Amino acid sequence: MAEEQQDQKPPHRGLKKGLYVIPTLFTAANVAMGYLAVLWSIRGFQAAANDPNLAASYYNGAGLAIGLAILFDTVDGRIARATRTATEIGVQFDSLADVLTFGIAPATLAYAWAIAPAFAENTPGHNLGIFILFAFLMCGAFRLARFNLQATRPRVLIEGAVKVDKKAFVGLPIPPAGGLIASLVHFAPAPFSVYGENAAQFYGYALLALVAILAILMISTIRYTSMKTTGGPRQGFYIVLAIAAMAMAIWLYSKYALLIMAGGYVAHGVIWWIFRFFSSRFRPAKSS
Prior knowledge:
It is a single chain. This protein is mainly alpha-helical. It has one domain. It contains nine helices and two strands, in the order αααααβααβαα. A two-stranded antiparallel ribbon has the order 1-2. Helix 2 runs antiparallel to helix 3 (about 50-80), helix 3 (about 50-80) packs antiparallel against helix 6 (about 175-185) and helix 4 (about 90-120) packs antiparallel against helix 5 (about 125-150). The longest helix has about 35 residues, at about 15-45. About 35% of the residues are buried. Residues about 1-10 and about 155-160 have low confidence and may be disordered.
């Protein structure tokens, strides 16, 4: 009898359990990158006054850590879907990781790299910077909460809520929002204090305007492509070519390539929304 029960156990049970660990490891790597980005932002802030070059190396390291976290965040979801090991606790763990890596870490980096060097403490610019960076963090957390609610309980949403669409995200996802800030730091990692007081404050206000726009886009209903439906048999060859081209561009011209990729993704949702808005307005009415 015991032998019959043993034979009825599903095959490869141990392997299946092991597969659940793989997405978690990538999410843990995501958390590690966010943790390092915060530490290096603090180190850069400490070094900015005496050694701007050393501070720039710390800021650049923090920006690259956030960029690597985007890669880990993308891979863990695809692995979970490919191996059918997605769980509700995995979704929550991934969201908590994203709050740290793409919410707290970019806000800390932006403060240490731009706001604190550009504005004296307790000045209007400094206080405005703290407020907008906090708004960025709050909007990112709200964006993740809304995504989790739509993904786990799409039928229990309140009336009028946007339906779940696997082809598109509702609102700008927080990883590319934080990634755009990180790509700006990687493009020009020197603290703003090296540009002089007037230029530093001008650049500081420009950065705060961008951060405010990113915060608004995250809680908006503008749709952004999720790229989850790409990778079919006919598209596989072209996707491999595109990935190879992007990897080569990042390897050779990382400062420009990462900034263009991050800015292009953030902008494409707005451009597509404007296009649909005007096309629906000028569409001829159907005759009854």
